[in-house]
Design brief:
25% helix, alpha/beta, 3 helices, D-tyrosyl-trna(Tyr) Deacylase, Chain: A, five-stranded mixed sheet, globular
Length: 141
């Protein structure tokens, strides 16, 4: 699994003109990509890492301050544009594999005590955020 993690001061996702997920104030906006060999164990590992990652103000984690997370599925994180001008998506897991694993990341975060908002899997989403810093980290588990 691959995640782009952004420290934010508010973020939201809109699908078809309707807000499907939103967090206010300090938190993390997390774009999650799934590849073919990912498992529920990797989803749990990613959730633990996100909950304890010390990138908030004062080197705190979401678990330290109860900060919310906005988790958005993002198959394009496994795009490959090394050849030519058009990316390929061969490394991205298909929807029936990826969707339950993104859901597992969200469920594991909630079990850890996190407040989690989400996008809508497979939908055309408009993600709006205020990157605080800016601060962006790429995680891979």
């Amino acid at each position: 699994m691959r995640a782009v993690v952004q420290r934010v001061d508010g973020a939201s996702v809109v699908v078809d003109g309707r807000t499907t997920g939103e967090i206010a104030g300090e938190g993390l906006c997390v774009l999650v990509g799934v590849t073919h060999d990912d498992t529920t164990a990797k989803a749990a590992q990613l959730a633990r890492k996100l909950w304890s990652l010390r990138i908030l103000d004062g080197e705190k984690s979401c678990s330290d301050v109860g900060a919310p997370l906005l988790v958005v599925s993002q198959f394009t994180l496994y795009g490959d544009a090394r050849k030519g001008r058009r990316p390929t998506w061969n490394a991205a897991a298909p929807g029936p594999v990826a969707e339950p694993l993104v859901d597992e990341v969200v469920e594991q975060l909630r079990e850890l005590g996190a407040e989690v908002a989400t996008g809508s899997f497979g939908a055309k989403m408009r993600v709006t955020l205020t990157n605080d810093g800016p601060f962006t980290v790429l995680l891979e588990v």
